[in-house]
Amino acid sequence: MIASLSGTVLKAGLDSVVLAVGGVGMLVHTTPATAASVRAGQPTDLATSLVVREDSLTLYGFATEDEKHVFETVQTVSGVGPRLALALLAVHDPTSVRRALGSGDIAALTKVPGIGKKGAERLVLELRDKLGVLGGSGESAGVTPQRSGSDDWREQVREALVGLGWTARQADDAIDRVAPQAADGASVSAMLRAALRELGR
Q1: What is the DSSP letter of 152?
Q2: Which of 18, 147, 169, 171 is most buried as measured by Cβ atoms within 10 A of its Cβ?
Q3: For the chain, which residues make up each domain, given as ranges?
Q4: Is 179 in a helix, a strand, or coil?
């Protein structure tokens, strides 16, 4: 099991990062927020989970160990694979996931693309006790959030939202609504989560 990776970012895409580790470029699938928080040429650390299939070995990476824990735990539910687990963390941070499961907030869970009402009810039923205790929610020391001091964050957030399934117009509307927060020096990751909350209203 590859539990973590430390290396230099070779490339940061919409929902993936390529890390140079020991002379090897490792492709790691991430949430849009994690991908947006790193930059090519910078060192970073990611908590990772290796998913083994008959025809593939796929790495998923996270800014915190808590995100990784939630990712792995939700996959214990029948019908939930790594892609859906990653989508859940793209829309909700670990604390929000626990809150939704603990309170049975079906509406919050169904905001995630791919989770319907029955799937949300199954998640609550099976995970309420497993993920009921809040864990650490701090960011990994290896990931330095990219600050949104300029308008560069707009395009990154827009690409991430479109990649998650919203239209360009919906993305632009959400970005316009959360834009005032950028003046406070919020990270691109924080801006993305704020936009996702707007779209979930």
Answers
A1: H
A2: 171
A3: 4-62, 76-127, 152-199
A4: helix
Q: In this structure, which amino acid lies at residue 60? A: Y
Summarize pLDDT for 97-144 with one digit per residue, the tens.
Answer: 999 998 899 999 998 888 999 999 999 999 988 885 444 333 443 444
Distance between CA atoms of 76 and 160, rounded to whole angstroms?
Answer: 27
- Token code pair at residue 114: 């791919």
What's the CATH number of domain 152-199, 1.10.10.10, 1.10.8.10, 3.30.700.20, 3.30.1490.20? 1.10.8.10
Question: Can you identify the CATH homologous superfamily of domain 4-62?
Answer: Nucleic acid-binding proteins (2.40.50.140)
Tokens at residue 121, please? 């009810």
Spatial distance between the Cα atoms of 82 and 124, rounded to a whole number of angstroms:
18
The answer to whether 33 touches 189, Cβ cutoff 8 Å, is yes
What is the reported pTM? 0.69
Q: What CATH number labels 76-127?
A: 1.10.150.20
The per-residue pLDDT for range 2-35, each reduced to its tens digit, is: 889 999 999 998 889 999 999 999 999 999 889 8
What is the torsional sign of CA 14, 192, 29, 24? positive
Q: Give CA–CA dist 200/110, Å, rounded.
A: 9
In which residue are the tokens 């801006």 written? 191
Rounded CA separation 58/64 (Å): 18
